[in-house]
Amino acid sequence: MKYLKEIKIIHRDLKLGNLFLNEQMQVKVGDFGLAAKCVFDGERKRTIWGTPNYIAPEVLSSKIGHSYEVDLWSLGVIAYTMLF
């Protein structure tokens, strides 16, 4: 997630189905079909994309837009799902 932010990419569809394990049991993120590139710092996207159970509230409220924080929300949902 840190690397994606460094290269200014918002994944926007993080979910268990888009996380993969390789032979060394390392987690890899896949399916960048809904990802967006931020051109400048502070840029906010307003399109409503994502999987309903993992989508952050700010995505649904397209008035203010969303940025990298939507991936953090999805990561929290993934962690919660894995715990329970």
Indicate the low-confidence ranges by residue numbers: none
Radius of gyration: 13 Å
Structural class: alpha+beta
**Beta-strand percent range:** 5-15%
* Overall mean pLDDT: 93
Portion of residues within helices: 25-40%
Polypeptide structure, described:
It is globular, with a radius of gyration of 13 Å. The longest helix has 15 residues, at 69-83. The model has no long low-confidence stretch (mean pLDDT 93). It has helices spanning 2-6, 57-60, 69-83; strands at 9-10, 19-21, 27-29, 36-37. The chain is an alpha+beta fold and 84 residues long.
Write a brief structural summary.
Helix content is 29%, strand content 12%.
Could you outline the blueprint of secondary structure elements for this entry?
Elements: H1 2-6, E1 9-10, E2 19-21, E3 27-29, E4 36-37, H2 57-60, H3 69-83
Antiparallel strand pairs: 1-4, 2-3
Considering the chains and any ligands shown, give keywords for the structure.
alpha+beta; two-stranded antiparallel ribbon; globular
